[in-house]
């Protein structure tokens, strides 16, 4: 295993996460969240530029309020902190801990979404660092399932 200070977020992020478009309705977004089993979904424009993040909590609140036809632009968090793939993982962990974020999108220099770092990604790293053994094919199948929508 690499020395923890040398791990970049690209080494551990979820690549090519499931995304939603800005005009997706809350009801459709809820179906996608349920289908892929994640708690956060990046929202992108037609050019795959990050425009916000939708949390399960915010989405459920909107649907419970009867806003199932509302577009995501009204529900998502538009001003999100994002990092680049070369950002040290410990800096991303600090941002998540300090601000209480459940995820941080990873974008390239042009603002295109390339991945997402979640609390689950950090738990996987901790599990491995503590001696846990996750078969590589199991992780790959989890990632394929997450990107199946």
Summarize the structure.
This protein is an alpha+beta fold and 149 residues long.
What number of structural domains do the residues give?
1
According to CATH, the homologous superfamily is CBS-domain
**What's the level 1 CATH class?**
Alpha Beta
- Give the helix level as a range of percent: 25-40%
Task: Name the structural class.
Answer: alpha+beta
Order of helices and strands: EEHEEHHEEHH
Number of strands: 6
The appropriate CATH architecture is Roll
- Report the CATH topology name: CBS-domain
Radius of gyration: 16 Å
Mean of the pLDDT scores? 87
Beta-strand percentage?
15-25%
Span of the ends, CA to CA = 32 Å
Task: Give the CA-based shape.
Answer: globular
Taking pLDDT < 50 over at least 5 consecutive residues as the criterion, the unreliable ranges are: none
Produce the secondary structure layout.
Blueprint lengths: L13 E2 L4 E2 L4 H11 L3 E5 L5 E6 H9 L24 H11 L3 E5 L5 E6 H11 L6 H11 L3
Parallel strand pairs: 2-3
Antiparallel strand pairs: 1-6, 3-4, 5-6
Helix pairs in contact: 1-2
Fold and architecture overview:
There is one protein chain. The protein is α+β, with helices and mostly antiparallel strands. It has a single domain (about 5-145), classed as CBS-domain (Roll), CATH 3.10.580. About 35% of the residues lie in helices and about 15% in strands. It has a three-stranded antiparallel beta sheet.
């Amino acid at each position: 295993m690499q020395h923890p200070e040398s791990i970049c977020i690209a080494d551990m992020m979820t690549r090519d996460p499931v995304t939603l478009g800005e005009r997706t309705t809350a009801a459709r977004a809820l179906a996608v969240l349920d289908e892929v089993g994640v708690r956060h979904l990046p929202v992108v424009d037609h050019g795959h530029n990050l425009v916000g993040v939708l949390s399960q909590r915010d989405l459920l609140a909107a649907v419970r309020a009867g806003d199932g036809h509302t577009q995501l632009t009204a529900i998502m968090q538009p001003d999100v902190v994002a990092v680049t793939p070369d950002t040290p993982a410990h800096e991303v962990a600090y941002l998540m801990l300090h601000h209480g974020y459940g995820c941080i999108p990873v974008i390239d220099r042009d603002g295109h979404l390339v991945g997402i770092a979640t609390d689950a990604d950090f738990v996987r790293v901790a599990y491995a660092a503590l001696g846990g053994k996750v078969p590589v094919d199991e992780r790959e199948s989890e990632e394929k399932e997450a990107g199946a929508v």
